[in-house]
Amino acid sequence: AQKVTQAQTEISVVEKEDVTLDCVYETRDTTYYLFWYKQPPSGELVFLIRRNSFDEQNEISGRYSWNFQKSTSSFNFTITASQVVDSAVYFCAPFASYNTDKLIFGTGTRLQVFP
Amino acid sequence: DAGITQSPRHKVTETGTPVTLRCHQTENHRYMYWYRQDPGHGLRLIHYSYGVKDTDKGEVSDGYSVSRSKTEDFLLTLESATSSQTSVYFCAINTGTGASEQYFGPGTRLTVT
Question: How far is CA A56 from CA A67, B12, B60, in A?
Answer without folding.
Answer: 8, 46, 33
